[in-house]
Each structure stands twice: as C-alpha cells, then as structure tokens.
Specification:
Largest sheet: 13 strands, mixed
CATH class of the largest domain: Alpha Beta
Order of helices and strands: EHHEEEHEEHEHEHEEHEHEHE
Number of helices: 9
CATH architecture of the largest domain: 3-Layer(aba) Sandwich
Helix content: 25-40%
Number of strands: 13
CATH topology of the largest domain: Aminopeptidase
Radius of gyration: 20 Å
Length: 317
C-alpha cells in the first residue's frame, strides 16, 4: 500500500535510486551520487523537509514532489507568495495510479500553507531554488518538452503553459566558426579576460550557481580599455554520463554599461567557444526566453542548434 510522508535523513540514497529509475530525459543529470543532492539541494539554507514529499511503498520510494519558493525582488531572501513545484517524479512501475496527482495536491497544500498566492510548476531559470546543475542543463527551465508526460499531466490538473525557454547547444567537435565579416573584424581587435563571476554576487546567485564551478569571461579591446561584454560559464559535469560529452553552460550574457552593439555578444560567444574547444570541451549550451528573438537569432548565427524547450506552467486562478 502506498503511503505519503515528508523527507527523512535516511532518504538520499533512495531518492538517487528513484531519480535514475524515472529516466527523466536528456535534460536530467545522471550517474551522480548522494553527494550531488546534498550539495545542490539538502544543504541549501532554505531547504525545508516538509516541502519534499515522498510516495512510499514499503521501504521503497516510488514518487516525489518538491515544493519551494522563488526569490524576493532584491534577491536577498525568499518570496513566500511565489510557490514553485520544483520537481515531480513517479517511478515507471507506479504511473497512472493517481500517485502523481496526489503528490501534486500535497505539494500545493504545502505551498499554500506557507503563504503562496500563486503557484508555478517548473521554475524559470532565475527563480529555481533547487536542482540547479541537476535538471534542465545550465539551469532549470520549467519542465522540458522532451518529457512528453509533463504537458498533459499539468494541463489535466489546472495548469496552463506560461513562459517558454529555448535550449541551444553547439557541438565543438565538428564544424568551423560561422563566417560573419563584421564579427571577424571586431574579433581581431578583441581579447578575452578571465575573472571570478560577478565581482559581488547577490545571495540568490551564491546559493545556486555559487555551488557549481563557474568562471567569468570578459571581452576587452586588445589596445586597452574597459570590457564591452561578459558571460559566465558553468560546469555541467553531472551530465557527462547522459550526454557523453564534456559540457559547459553559458549564462549571464550581457553588454557592459553604455554598450549597445549586440555584435559584441556574438563575438564573445565565438571567442569563448574557441577557448573551450582548446580546453577539450566538446559541448556548449545556452538558454534564452522564447520572447527574446534577438538573442535566439544571434545564438543560431553562432553555430548553435535548438535541442529542447522548457515550459513553466502556471496554476489557473
């Protein structure tokens, strides 16, 4: 008989086993141990055992839902009015038995009890409190369309599709840099600088990306002067066993204050890809909101291809 309960300290090994048994698709890390869950989930200062709920059959975990909260406006703490279903999974042997629906109900009940006024299923990249580095690639991007179960499940339970995030990857093992005269002209005048990310990162950044291997690349004039653009690279080693490649994610891509030429971003990505290829990285990923058509076109022009789409689902009402 299936029962429901919250997290216990003895659960991590069985949660890892459940994760791998669920075959969560190309966007889910694989082959990791309890150390990864401890570092990226359980050790978060805001982890609440009441928010991680399991379906249990005897001593076996057969399903799980994890509720959490997004950040406040200043990124200095949580916003308890913004509830998130961060993850939901059911063992294949126990699907279509109502376990998923009951887990979702209990997850929502937890979020409302903590003060949630609105609930989303699948956090946006900037909102995800957990599983950064474990699901979605560079960052969680809702539930992935490569998981065909998610859309039907959430629409059946009162959710509708909201923001969509396009996930692009570039295989560095083959192909040359795309030819663009203006990009080539700018590139000849530029160099890469390397530094720690963000200089003074906020609390929200540190609790999530700060737990991963990160470096910041800047684009600077060879003749001297301030940087004109920057990007942060994120190590994706937890995906090696499922992607069979050494992968790096790109995030926080921005122009420096006062700069307006978007080609600086394209030059920066091109030069970073070349640098990573020299370091034997074979795959690079970047994500963008579907509404950001300019970034999407620029990424495609830099040799990336669309590999997946993440969807954030909003609770009706």
């Amino acid at each position: 008989m299936v029962e429901y309960r919250t997290f216990k300290n003895t659960d991590p090994p069985r949660m890892v086993a459940l994760w791998h048994a669920c075959h969560l698709g190309r966007g889910a890390a694989a082959g990791f141990t309890t150390d990864a869950l401890e570092r990226l989930v359980f050790s978060q200062t805001y982890f609440d055992r009441e928010g991680l709920i399991f379906a249990v059959d005897g001593d076996r975990l057969v399903g799980a839902v994890h509720g959490g909260f997004g950040p406040n406006e200043s990124r200095s703490g949580l916003d308890y009015s913004h509830g998130l279903i961060c993850h939901l999974m059911v063992h294949p042997e126990f699907r279509h038995t109502g376990i998923g629906a009951e887990l979702l109900r209990r997850g929502e009940e937890y979020l409302y009890a903590k003060g949630a006024k609105r609930i989303q299923a699948g956090p946006a990249p900037e909102d995800a409190p957990f599983y950064v580095g474990l699901y979605g690639g560079t960052a969680p991007t809702g539930f992935l369309q490569s998981d065909p179960v998610a859309a039907k499940f959430f629409s059946t339970h009162g959710y509708h599709p909201g923001a969509k995030y396009l996930i692009y990857q570039r295989d560095l093992k083959s192909g040359r840099e795309p030819i663009n005269f203006r990009v080539t002209t700018i590139r000849r005048k530029m160099a890469l600088s390397l530094s720690e990310p963000l200089g003074a990162p906020n609390w929200w950044w540190v609790t999530r990306l700060g737990r991963l291997d990160t470096l910041r690349f800047g684009l600077v004039p060879k003749g001297g002067g301030p940087e004109v653009a920057h990007v942060t690279i994120v190590g994706l080693d937890l995906y090696i066993s499922c992607w069979h490649q050494r992968a790096i994610g790109l995030t926080d891509l921005s122009l420096a204050p006062g700069q307006t030429d978007p080609l600086y971003k394209q030059v920066l990505i091109s030069m970073v890809c070349q640098r990573l290829r020299d370091e034997l990285i074979t795959n690079v990923e970047i994500q963008c909101n579907e509404s950001n058509t300019a970034l999407s076109q620029m990424v495609l022009g830099t040799g990336f291809t669309l590999v997946d789409t993440g969807v954030v689902y909003d609770k009706n009402g």
